[in-house]
Structures are given as C-alpha cells and as structure tokens.
Design goal:
The protein is an alpha+beta fold. It folds into three domains: 6-168, Beta-Lactamase, CATH 3.30.450; 170-267, no CATH class; 270-330, Arc Repressor Mutant, subunit A, CATH 1.10.10. 59% of the residues lie in helices and 10% in strands. The protein is built from 13 helices and five strands. The chain has helices at residues 6-9, 12-26, 48-55, 57-77, 136-144, 151-193, 206-233, 241-247, 252-263, 267-285, 290-296, 302-313, 317-330, and strands spanning 29-34, 81-84, 90-98, 101-113, 148-149. Strands 1, 2, 3, 4 and 5 form a five-stranded mixed β-sheet that branches. It is elongated and about 95 Å long. The relative contact order is 0.07.
C-alpha cells in the first residue's frame, strides 16, 4: 500500500461538516490535527473565552503546549485522554491510530465540569504559571459562559465521537485498500497484454486473466451497491451525486467515473431515467394527478417533470396516459 496520511484517510471537507454538526449539537469545541499537531480542519464552535486566550501570544503558546501534551498522552496510553488545560477547562484528545501508527488526533472540549464529590480526578496538564490576561472582567464573563457538563455526559460524548472516527476510518481504509488492489490487478493485466512480463509470469492463462477482470468488476460494483439500493428506495427524495459518493465513502469525482464505467451512463441520466420509468408505471396503474406523480418520483416542479418526460418519451405525461387508455379500451373484451 502507498504511504497514507490523515488527509488520505479522512475526506477533510466531509469530516469538517460532521465535526461542525457534532460540535453544534454537543455544545463543544472540536479541531482535528495531524501527527505533528498541525490543524487539518477549522475550529468548530471555538468558545469566545478560548478565542480571546489564543489571541494573546503568551497564553496561546501555553494553549498549544496543552494541546500537544494531550495528544502525546493519548498516544502513550493508546486511548482517549481527558485532561484540564492551564485554565482548568476540560478537554480531551481522541487519537487516530492505525496498525500502531499515530496519524493525528481529534481534540474536543472547552467545557467546564459540573462539581460533584464523586467526580474522578482529572489531571491538569500544564503546571506552569499562566500568562496575565489583558481584560480580567471581560475574560471572567466569557469564562462563566462556558458550558458545564457532568463527567458522565463528557465521557459519553467522547465515546460517541471515538466510534464515529473509527467507523469512518475503517470504511475509508477498506476502500483505499480496494482501490490499491484494483490498480495492482489492472497493471498486471496491462503487462500481460503488452507482453512486458517475465517468462515465469507468462504462464498466467486466459482463465486467470478473466478471473482477475471479473474480480475487478465485482469489487467495483459492490462499491456502488449502497448507492444503487438507496436510489431505488428513495426516488421521491432529493438525491445528489455528492450524497451518493459519501454513502460509498469515495470522492464525488471517483464516484462519477466509476458510475459511468459500470452503469454505462452518467449518474444524472440514470437518475432521471429511473424516475421517468417509475412515472410511466404510475401513469399506467394509478389515477394520481400529474403533480402527485411528479412529487412521488422526485420532481418537485411539475413543469420541469413534464419537459423531462417529453424529452425521454416524445410526448407529455397526460398524453402518454391518454394513449395507454385508448389502447386499453381498444382491446377491452366486452361481455
């Protein structure tokens, strides 16, 4: 396998969206960094207090030390690490570790712990002196506005984020390895076609070549299965190429090329064709209005539906139904 990094594992644009929504729902701040501690995402929901702290060079330097130490401890312990920063705020580091190699960390927190005698001890990660703040009253106000959570809630939230990270990484790695394997098989086949292999490898017979090609086709088709099934079951919904690519854990560009290669038509053409076919069936078997059928097959503008239908069938939906009715009446058996 070629060398991979955190930006290969995570679709950063898509991950940023997940990170932003998770931060919004949990009222926390989140940022993802690589193994060097360099951010690979924007800060999601950074609190006003922490923004002000990080705007001051000396206090920002201490913040960075806390972040770095949190990541190091998470890697050392090989598990999620909850700690207090230099301002006594609760943060946590969720390490991204694959096959014992550290790729980066999801930093989550900027919350205060609700006081409880039964709370476990949380290490304060920075023991040195804090930098003096320029506006104490303002900073105390922003500090008081930080969300307060119970230790149970904090742990549940971190555990959920950990599961999300691990699931996405697992699927991304699986698809990455699949693409690598496909490329290897294709290169091997190309060498066979161009007689660029050694005498030993020339023993590969036609049956084995066909088996390799069949294997490629099957694996690539399996990557589209989730999207194809979703489309068939949800034609009434808005369906985009980007959403389908996300379902398959591949980039929109690769999804588009793979779809055209495997299905023989563009994604947009395939989607409209399925919708028109379903509309024809509804026109034939139901008394629903054109507007109702348009909505049921995913066209929320009846005028657009009529234009697309005419483009594919050469006539309008209303006329198509009348033609079917005349044909049905013509061959109807009268007792």
């Amino acid at each position: 396998m070629n060398p991979i990094d955190i930006q290969t594992i995570l679709d950063i644009k898509r991950w940023q969206m997940i990170q932003d929504k998770f931060a919004l729902v949990t009222n926390t701040a989140i940022i993802t960094v690589d193994y060097k501690g360099v951010p690979v995402t924007k800060h999601s929901q950074c609190s006003e207090f922490c923004k002000k702290i990080r705007q001051q060079p000396k206090s920002n330097e201490i913040c960075q030390k806390c972040d770095a130490r949190g990541g190091i401890e998470a890697v050392r312990l090989n598990k999620n690490y909850i700690y207090r920063c230099h301002c006594n705020i609760i943060d946590a580091a969720i390490p991204i570790i694959i096959e014992n190699k550290y790729f980066g960390c999801v930093m989550i927190g900027q919350v205060l712990l609700e006081e409880n005698p039964e709370n476990e001890y949380i290490e304060k990660i920075y023991k040195g002196p804090n930098a003096l703040l320029s506006n104490q009253n303002e900073m105390l106000y922003f500090y008081s506005k930080l969300p307060r959570l119970t230790m149970h809630r904090i742990k549940e939230m971190i555990d959920l984020m950990d599961h999300i990270v691990k699931y996405i990484i697992k699927e991304s790695i699986k698809n990455f390895e699949l693409l690598e394997e496909q490329q290897m098989i294709k290169k091997k086949f190309e060498r066979i076609l161009h007689n660029e292999i050694t005498q030993e490898n020339r023993s590969l017979n036609n049956a084995e070549v066909k088996e390799n090609l069949y294997e490629i086709a099957n694996k690539e088709n399996s990557m589209l299965d989730t999207a194809l099934q979703y489309i068939k079951e949800n034609l009434h919904k808005k369906i985009t190429l980007e959403d389908m690519a996300n379902l398959c854990f591949i980039t929109p560009g690769y999804f588009s090329k793979l779809f055209y290669r495997e299905m023989g038509e563009k994604f947009s053409d395939y989607l409209i064709r399925l919708r028109i076919e379903k509309a024809k069936k509804l026109l034939k078997t139901t008394d629903k209005t054109i507007q109702q059928i348009a909505i049921e097959v995913g066209f929320y503008d009846a005028g657009y539906f009529i234009r697309r239908f005419k483009l594919y069938e050469g006539t309008t939906p209303g006329n198509y139904r009348r033609i079917l009715k005349r044909q049905s009446d013509k061959y109807k058996i009268i007792p």
